[in-house]
Amino acid sequence: MASVKSYLIKSFFYPIPFISVKKSGRIYSTIRQILLVGQLASLVVSSTGDKGSVRGILDAVDPKALNIDTDYVGPKLENVTLTFMENLIQFYNKTLYEDKKNILHQKFVLMILKQTCDHFKTQPSLQEVELKPAEKIITVCGNIHGKLEDLLHIFDINGFPSPSNRYLFNGGFINRRPESIECALILFGFALLYPDSFFINRGSHEDFHQSQGKGSLTEESERKYPGNSEVLHGFWEVFRWLPLALIIRGNVPKKVDSFWSATNLIRPITWGRKMYHRFTGQRKIRIGAYTPSHGRILVVHAGLFSKPGVTLDDIQRIERGCDPEESALMFDMLWSNPGEKDGRHQNIPGFGSIQFGPDISESFCTRNKIDYIIRSHAPVPMGYHVEHHGRVVTIFSTTDCHRDNRGAIAVVKAPELKPVFTVFAFKYDYKEARCLWLGEKNIAVEKYNTIGVEQTEGSPLG
Questions:
Q1: Are 346 and 14 in contact (CB under 8 A)?
Q2: 205 classed as catalytic
Q3: Residue 103 to residue 181: CA distance in whole angstroms
Q4: pLDDT for res 462
Q5: Three-state SS letters, the chain
Q6: Is residue 307 within 8 Å of 22, Cβ to Cβ?
Q7: 8 Å CB contact between 57 and 230
């Protein structure tokens, strides 16, 4: 229903000649925000008795002053350590397939949220990690959507987070599934334990507008922590301070041209072939993820911008501590989608922002000396998807979110910086009451085939 409403609002304004795609999206966002004011106000009044803003709740709460129930048997937090994280995962895993879940005490939840918020406030909007020889890999994970079994399976097949086994979770880790709180707390805990090797980007769902309704973080919080609005508002406060993007940097080996490839006899032929494929519509050009040369990858939740000419410095200057509707660049980073046609176009129903074409990806990467972009946001059948001639790679890490899609992760290795994919699918054997995992590891990007694979723009969910 929400998708229909958003489509009708944007479709009404977009045909007006003087209202662009960007403005129509902003008008829709403003109307949506106005419609949600009444709902938000009632939530705040009923849970806190205060009509003021929900922001700053973690500064006003002292978690250590809360008492622990005598019958509580879960892990207790003094400082976030590896032992605590192992105990927390084991605690959650015990009741993973049971109706009654193990619940971490609200005191320790608020402690993690407060420490996480303080940590992210010190981080830039655009983070950067360098893949040195001793730390030569980082794993990029897409949307998890509160599916704890997928998150734990990733750790099983790809290794536990550590200083030498780096991870980046690219937003979309809440809503839709019943363990959003568990997934978020595990990710936040590892971000505190390994601040230099475990990273989190903000996604479109990490927003108080998006985390309400059926199957949302709000519903889950009210069920697991009834009468405690500080937990829910604490999550919203952390979301506002999550970083927006990350640059993966490495020293890509320079290719030494042979005599013939370096002469003017060969290069015009190569250039002419590329132009021929461009104008005839043949998508055989392979650059970006196939042949990294700059040694830099941008990881962002959704995609690129309505505004032309955006640079990495512009991303770095984005002020956080707010909701996406308050920042045009942030909104685009969390909601845009790649499309097949060149240029900028109205996005598919259910999404704000724009669709950006191969030419937009090419110009952005060239201008900012980026090899390719890794994004998430939209489910794809195989869990990963390569498009725009290798300039855009989509990673979606939760299974069965849309049409029985598979989940995938991308391991970026130094020094080449080419993505290597692992694909997995979750099945449950009801006869033997056990989980079955199917999948394939070490899929090189060169093996990717787009024939018969649904494009990201065909997926109505994010």
A1: yes
A2: yes
A3: 9
A4: 52
A5: CHHHHHHHHHHHHCCCCCCCHHHHHHHHHHHHHHHHHHHHHHHHHHHHCCCCCCCCHHHHCCHHHCCCCCCCCCCCCCCCCHHHHHHHHHHHHHCCCCCCCCCCCHHHHHHHHHHHHHHHHCCCCEEEEECCCCCCEEEEECCCCCCHHHHHHHHHHHCCCECCEEEEECCCCCCCCCCHHHHHHHHHHHHHHCCCCEEECCCCCCCCCCCCCCCCHHHHHHHHCCCCHHHHHHHHHHHHHCCCEEEEECCCCCCCCCHHHHCCCCHHHHHHHHHHHHHHCCCCCCCCCCCCCCCEEEEECCCCCCCCCCCHHHHHCCCCCCCHHHCHHHHHHHHCEECCCCCEEECCCCCCCEEECHHHHHHHHHHHCCCEEEECCCCCCCCEEEEHHHCEEEECCCCCCCCCCCEEEEEEECCCCCEEEEEEEEEEECCCCEEEEEEEEEEEHHHCCCCCCCCHHHCCCC
A6: yes
A7: yes
Report the C-alpha gap between 169 and 142 in whole angstroms: 6
Cα dihedral 266, 271, 274, 279 sign: negative
| Beta strands at 407-413 and 372-375: parallel, antiparallel or unpaired | unpaired
The residue count of the chain comes to 462
Cβ–Cβ < 8 Å for 75, 103: no
Whole-structure pTM over 0.70, yes or no? yes
pLDDT score for 446 = 87
Would you say 388 and 364 are in contact if contact means Cβ atoms under 8 Å apart?
A: no
b (16+ CB within 10 A) / e for 353-370 = bbbbbbebbbebbeebeb
Give per-10-residue mean pLDDT for the chain (462 aa).
Answer: 45 48 54 43 37 70 91 95 98 90 96 97 97 85 96 96 96 95 98 98 94 92 93 96 97 63 47 57 72 95 96 98 94 95 87 90 97 96 95 96 90 93 86 80 82 41 48
The Cα 334–Cα 285 span in angstroms is 28
Asked if 66 and 107 count as a contact pair (C-beta separation under 8 A), the reply is yes
| Options 205, 233, 388, 389, the catalytic residue | 205
Scanning the structure block, which residue is given the tokens 């008492």? 67
Beta carbons within 8 Å of 76's beta carbon, 6+ residues apart: 68, 105, 108
Q: Is the dihedral of CA 376, 245, 208, 87 positive or negative?
A: positive
Which pLDDT score, from 0 to 100, does residue 254 have?
Answer: 73
Contact 390, 366 (CB under 8 A): no
Instruction: Quote the CA–CA distance of 152 and 104 in Å, as a whole number.
Output: 17
Question: Residue 68 is encoded by which pair of tokens?
Answer: 């622990």
